[in-house]
Amino acid sequence: MSKTTSHDSDVSFIQALAELLRANDLTELRVKRDYAENDSLDVRVGRYTQPAPQQVISAAPAPVAAAPVAAAAPAATSGDDPASHPGAVTSPMVGTVYMAAEPGAAAFATVGKQISEGETLLIIEAMKTMNHIPAPRSGTIKRILVEDGAPVEFGAPLVIIE
């Protein structure tokens, strides 16, 4: 009978963990309960979702941080949205931008560099995975709209290739 009671409390415990997961916007919780020598409960509660829309808000400062870089050319395009530029390469995911393969290494892309289709422009780290972002077309890099180590949102303009 005590085993049944234990299982009933386990269900309540797991439901409480799931609620804690939702309430704190967590993706995973893992807990181990030891009841007796050969009686324990090991629970892993997780959820896997696509990036939440609130990350769009957190990445909004990225263009502001990049404004000094863009300030050299916008005299003719002041007020234009870089994302609407026909040569804009946008982020395919939410993550952190890295301009080089490792700290201190040469940047993949620099303003004025000729780049070939498929050549790596930068890396976006998302969920501990380094994703190389390739150039969608050949051309010259006219503007770099993000800084090394900056957060980026899905669809945010990264570079402009003409």
TrEMBL record:
Pathway connected to this protein: Lipid metabolism; fatty acid biosynthesis
UniProt cross-references to CDD domains, sorted A to Z: biotinyl_domain
Keyword rRNA-binding annotated: no
UniProt GO BP: fatty acid biosynthetic process
Taxonomic superkingdom: Bacteria
Pfam families linked to this entry: Biotin_lipoyl
GO molecular function: acetyl-CoA carboxylase activity
Keyword terms: Biotin, Fatty acid biosynthesis, Fatty acid metabolism, Lipid biosynthesis, Lipid metabolism
GO cellular component annotations of the record: acetyl-CoA carboxylase complex
Span of domain Lipoyl-binding: 86-162
Function: This protein is a component of the acetyl coenzyme A carboxylase complex; first, biotin carboxylase catalyzes the carboxylation of the carrier protein and then the transcarboxylase transfers the carboxyl group to form malonyl-CoA.
Protein name per UniProt: Biotin carboxyl carrier protein of acetyl-CoA carboxylase
